[in-house]
């Protein structure tokens, strides 16, 4: 096989046990905490819906490090969304919620960075969200921890501070669609594969960040994720 050019390297996320998790796809769940749905102008009583980011939007941040993302083009309203990320170890389709946990390899802390002004314009026009959600470096993520070490994460605080000030606060138990239900819905629409990441939605308190701001996310049992906007 002779490639026309060298293929891009596989996107990987470091794991807590010193390995690398190769990323296949990045799925995201929209409006999955009631108070966040309300702050975006919705009731929080709708079926789950999804969007994707390209795998190379992932910015993996090693344990104890501060990741850096560039302030993206075109926007004047870059928002943070702190999220539990589920890492799929075993794929499948039409997975039942009751069987979903065995498809989970582990968990991480992620940021679904959003060009909110562009997303809002697309919503208004009924157009796809890609330009608001799926841009480069829009998916920072910390080290992944194996479910075999953490147990199944069903509750626990999820928070985000910006420059030390608390901005977002919720609990994993407040997810409208649980991780297992999300896997059921996703796997009805796509064939889940090893290496898929699922950003499971953000609690209330989303807001803008500026160049120089440092975001610090935390989820009980998963440590912290620190990212600076360059
Ligand atoms: Mn989100």
Describe this entry's structure for a reader.
By secondary structure, this protein is α+β, with helices and mostly antiparallel strands. Helices cover 17% and strands 32% of the residues. The protein has 6 helices and 17 strands. Strands 4-3-15-8-9-12 form a 6-stranded mixed β-sheet. Strand 16 and strand 17 form a beta hairpin. The N and C termini lie far apart (40 Å). Bound molecules: manganese (II) ion. The site of manganese (II) ion (MN) has 7 residues, from loops.
Helical fraction = 10-25%
Q: Sketch the topology as an H/E string, one letter per element.
A: EEEHEEEEEHEEHHEEHEEHEEE
Spatial shape: globular
Amount of beta strand:
25-35%
What order do the strands of the largest sheet run in, or round the barrel if closed? 4-3-15-8-9-12
Largest sheet: 6 strands, mixed
Number of extended strands = 17
Number of helices: 6
Measured between the Cα atoms of the first and last residue, the distance is: 40 Å
Rg, Cα atoms, Å: 17 Å
Bound chemical compounds: manganese (II) ion
Can you tell me the residue ranges where pLDDT is under 50 for at least 5 consecutive residues? none
Mean pLDDT: 97
By secondary-structure content and strand pairing, the structural class works out as alpha+beta
């Amino acid at each position: 096989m002779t490639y026309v050019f060298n293929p891009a390297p596989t996107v990987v996320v470091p794991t807590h046990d010193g390995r690398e998790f190769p990323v296949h796809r990045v799925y995201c769940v929209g409006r999955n905490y009631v108070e966040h749905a309300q702050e975006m102008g919705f009731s929080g009583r709708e079926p789950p819906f999804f969007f994707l980011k390209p795998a190379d939007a992932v910015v993996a941040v090693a344990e104890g490090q501060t990741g850096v993302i560039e302030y993206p083009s075109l926007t004047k309203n870059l928002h943070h969304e702190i999220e539990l990320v589920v890492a799929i170890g075993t794929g499948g389709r039409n997975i039942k919620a009751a069987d979903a946990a065995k498809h989970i390899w582990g968990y991480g802390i992620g940021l679904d960075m959003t060009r909110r002004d562009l997303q809002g314009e697309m919503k208004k026009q009924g157009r796809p969200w890609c330009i608001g959600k799926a841009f480069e470096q829009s998916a920072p993520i910390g080290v992944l921890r194996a479910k075999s070490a953490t147990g199944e994460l069903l509750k626990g605080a999820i928070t985000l501070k910006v420059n030390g000030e608390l901005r977002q606060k919720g609990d994993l138990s407040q997810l409208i669609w649980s991780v297992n239900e999300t896997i059921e819905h996703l796997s009805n629409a796509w064939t889940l594969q090893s290496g898929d990441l699922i950003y499971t939605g953000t609690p209330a308190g989303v807001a803008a960040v500026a160049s120089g701001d440092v975001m610090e996310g935390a989820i009980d049992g998963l440590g912290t994720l620190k990212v600076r906007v360059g």
